Amino acid sequence: MIRLFEKAAQEWEKKMAFVLVNHEAGLIFEALAEGLKSRHAEICMECFVSATWLLDMLTHLPEMGIQEMARICLLKRFVSIFKSAKDTEDKTIAMLALSSFIHDPDGIRDITIYKKDISKGLREFKKSSTVAFEMLKVFSEGSESSIELWNHKELAQEDCSINGVVLSITCHKDKIFSGHSDGTIKIWTGKNTSKGKGSVLRLTQEIREHTKAVTSLTVPPSGNTLYSGSHDKTIRVWSINKGDVYCEEVYDVKEHVNNLLVANNIACFIPQGAGIKINSWNGESKLLNPSKVVKCLALVNGRLYSGCLDNSIQDIDLSSGTLTSVQSGSRKLLAKGNRVNVLQVHDGLIYAACSSIEGTAFKIWDASTYDLVQSISLTSEVRTMAISSEFIYFGCKTGTLEVWCRNKLVKKEALQIGSNSKVLCMALDDNEDLLVIGTSDGKVQVWGVS
After folding, report:
1. Is residue 235 a contact partner of residue 260, using CB atoms and an 8 Å limit?
2. If exposure means fewest CB atoms within 10 Å of the residue's CB, which of 101, 278, 302, 445 is most exposed?
3. What radius of gyration, in Å, describes the C-alpha atoms of the chain?
4. Mean pLDDT of 400-412
């Protein structure tokens, strides 16, 4: 009975929308556009909500030649609201209205003009909204030259060579965390503003509690805690949300910690020898994949992916312990030359850069079927990788940063990071506005993505 009422309500809603938009060939859109300019907050809000509802209903109605009138009257206004809205609810409503324009070729053509204006806001919603994800997907596929709209510019650089090599970088909200080979952790501001370089990368705190190299820094999705892994055989837990960063817990894991990843109640890391160590916070420990020398890890939704020295890749289900091979390893005498250097998993795809005596191969697999989606050759050995909505960034042994279009796997540009340094670690901020890089000569660089 409830479903019948819902169906009847939906049909009534469609009929009402049909009558409104067809009156005087869409004259209502002109009226709503004028209402959105009103100085009276109540009138403006009523028109805002009504216009969003009508635009959404247009996607459920047959083509009537009204869509062009809706775009002419409302598209530019909703772009302005989406860009300037401070309230999350207003921004979400404006995004829903804008999404109505991506369902026909003319709408895609017109909204793409404003791509640069709204992409930043869409990236903020990407992780929590399928609407934002679909709009970004349309933008990335809509134009062969879309990657040319993006610009990368160095905003700041700090020389930290007194603390040795920069081994780890991570970002959280407006903070940047860097880990150094002398055991130091530095906390920086990371605001992308127009107030000059000092406002983008300003040191706010320096911590010296690890006694050896800080190889790993990670902030889990909960966002309340920073975890650091070190060659001093400890994992430290840091509070990061209230004032200064301070250590809450120290776990002695009795192993060198590399590539630390944390989820729920466990920590996964690569020890000095073979295998992967899994430590729970109650002290229990076990070794997975003991026959492999692991070079890199990725942890997504309870599945642990490992890239190995023999060029093999495995997917381990942490709940059941089931291990599945994604890529078989090499059995050549020169197998040590074939290895997986970096590995990440994004949006159901496995990305890996593999080095061999023949060169560097970049491969993408489907994470559910393990089918190879694409494979290309790279000219430089990749040491680190970062992936955004639009781009794949390769930090190379040669001191260059290669920027590739993620969807088309087309190289956009190569940025020179340093003549005598290697790119060792990278991280994007939450909004993908900043790319932070750590180098072998002790520099922390921030690049703006606009």
Report:
1. yes
2. 302
3. 25
4. 87
User: CA distances (Å), 280 to each of 188, 265, 289, 402, in order?
Assistant: 30, 6, 17, 37
- Residue 215's SS3 state is strand
Rounded CA separation 56/264 (Å): 39
Give residue for tokens 């309340």: 224
Long-range CB pairs of 308-311, under 8 A, 24+ apart, other chains included: 308/339, 308/340, 309/335, 309/336, 309/339, 310/335, 310/338, 310/339, 311/335, 311/338, 311/339, 311/340, 311/354, 311/356
Question: What pLDDT digit, counting tens, does each position of 309-367 carry?
Answer: 889 999 999 888 889 999 987 765 444 567 899 999 988 999 999 887 667 889 999 99
* CB contact at 8 A, 370 and 324: yes
Q: What is the length of the chain?
A: 450
Q: If you write DSSP's letter for every residue of 133-190 in order, what string do you get?
A: HHHHHHHHHH-TTGGGG--EEEEEEEE-GGG--EEEEEEETTEEEEEETTS-EEEEE-
- Closest Cα to residue 109, out of 148, 68, 74, 147? 68
β-pair partners for 187: 177, 205
The pLDDT assigned to 176 comes to 93
Residues 58, 52: Cα–Cα separation, whole Å: 10
For residues 280 and 264, give the distance between their C-alpha atoms in angstroms, rounded to a whole number.
9
Question: Average model confidence (pLDDT) for the chain?
Answer: 84
DSSP string, 267-288: EEEE-SSSSEEEEETTS-EEEE
